[in-house]
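Here we describe the complex-level prediction in full. Unlike the single-chain runs in Section 2.1, the two entities below were treated as one system.
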Amino acid sequence: MKNRSAYYMITPILIILTVFLFLPLLKVLFPSIFAEGYPFSAYVEFFSDGYYRGILYRTVRIAVVTTACCMVLGVPTAYFVSRCTKHWRGILLAVAIFPMMTNSVMRSFAWINILGTNGIINRLLLALGVIDEPVKLLYTEFAIVIGSVYLFLPLMIVTVAGVMENIGDDMMEAAESLGANRLTAFLRVIFPMSLPGIIVGSTLVFTGTLTAYTTPQLLGGNQQMVMATLIYQRAMSVGDWTGAAIISVIMIVITLVVIKCFNQIAARLDKRGA
Amino acid sequence: MRKGKVLTVFAVLVFAFLVAPLVIIAVTAFGGGNAIQFPIESFSLKWFAKVFTTKSFLESFRTSIIVALLATVLALAVGIPAAYALARSHIRGKGLLKSIFLSPTIVPGIVIGFVLYQFIVLSLDIPVFTGLLIGHFMVTLPYVIRVVGSSLDQFDFAIEEAAWSLGCPKGRAFFLTVLPNITSGISAAFMLAFINSFNNIPVSMFLTGPGVSTFPATLMNYIEYNYDPAVSAVSVLLMAATVIIMVVVDKTLGIASLAK
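The structure predicted for the assembly as a whole is:
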């Protein structure tokens, strides 16, 4: 293929991305750096505000906890799925993929029904006499974490199961015949071999939770703001475009750094494996 | 089978965690009361009737379908040639180009919506709908690049070269040899892009205006002001549609094609 025709083929996409993504990003976000005269002084101001720092910490904390939960719940489940017969594997994967195909409003709405003041958990605990009055579960950080785990766990299971499928049963058999029990064999053989998949899954879950809007908005509301909901609030309710731009830049930077770090870990593991 | 009892119980509990909330909403959709009940005390289909008579639901559903279709078709139109050029040519910086094409995934959806709203709608005075369409194009493009790209990577280009050497013009050779072999990749890309655009919220939050709202955005708005089973009924309908889509995909492309 001639280079010239290749350039023709990639030109439209490059023009669209430049005009409608890179240019708007630059035009809207760049001025925030010089918003207060000195470069980054608006950023310094942002970080010195305890309220905003709190939101930043909360967002990162939720992303870290959610990723950890997805790993703990997702990795063994993915292993289970990968060891099922082909028939069952198909069924279980379909069950995991199904929620991924539905929208996050619906999936968060389910948890409003479960966690709300009149929700299923509160009514159950009241009926059992464990509590005397409803406990506040909704509009807490806990609600956002559980909603986020619910949202991203399927992604972790599907991603990791895809990698584990390619690890043969003989690996476990070899480990067991050499005297390892099942748990040791899993931890020392299967887990390291599937680490690249786990890292990809974790990157997706972490960045997804960090930038999520719908779940924090519905399950955390205005009491538990995160960065994405803060952008919307700053821009639409307060008209503070600079503030929204600053938070946008911070979100993009954190996303890039996290992706870079996870890639680096994956690369190091690849080298060790080879 | 190398599965212990503990692992089996663990996996069953995890899947129960995934399925139970969906079952709960499905049940509440059929409640006869005015508020959400679980378990329901009487059976009724009135919330389904309400969904089909609520104008904002119907209108935004139409908007979402149109936006998702247009955005996906646009992404395929510019994405397939680009993916082909990446797979086939020897131009420099292909790795960089690919990351540029996938860059919309790095920018959070809410930020895409925010900058498009500021730049396109406010500065350039372009209608909100166009902005919405462009935003959703950014959602769909990475799926096209990734999925079509990976199916092109698996294609044996010796077939295309054979067509060339037999005198077939390049354009015709592409349509006769390459395209038929990547149709399943294109279909999978179409499904993924369409579904993800249809379900997307963050990109749309800033890009909705008078008369223009996407279905999930309307749903979200509705939840904030009304707490009734109408949303459960909507969810049941969406789940039914999802099941149909998944069965069709499973019969044609294989369910694994949605796990990308």
